[in-house]
Design brief:
mainly beta; 5-stranded mixed beta sheet; 5 strands; Ubiquitin-like (UB roll); 1 helix
Length: about 80
């Protein structure tokens, strides 16, 4: 399976890591790992994909390929707002 190099960071910028991810990896599995590394495992978060001039909330049950994530993409861990999305 092809891997995709992405960068994940927290919205406050305190955590940033570039990594290779299998294209068939589920978003929710990656998000769990990223939250643990960023010490956010107890905080409900969304994983956002920054596109040209927009931002897309990634769905946990999708894969990286299924979500159309391209090599070099920036993903942002964002704590859920009060009341959620």
């Amino acid at each position: 399976m092809e891997t995709i190099k992405v960068t994940v960071r927290t919205v406050d910028g305190n955590f940033k890591k570039t990594t290779d991810v299998p294209g068939d990896m589920l978003i929710e599995d990656f998000q769990e790992q990223a939250q643990e590394l960023a010490n956010l495992s107890s905080v409900p978060c969304h994983l956002l994909l920054s596109l040209d001039k927009t931002t897309k909330i990634l769905q946990g049950n999708d894969t990286f390929q299924g979500a159309g994530i391209q090599p070099g993409s920036l993903l942002t861990l964002t704590p859920n707002a009060e009341g959620g999305y």
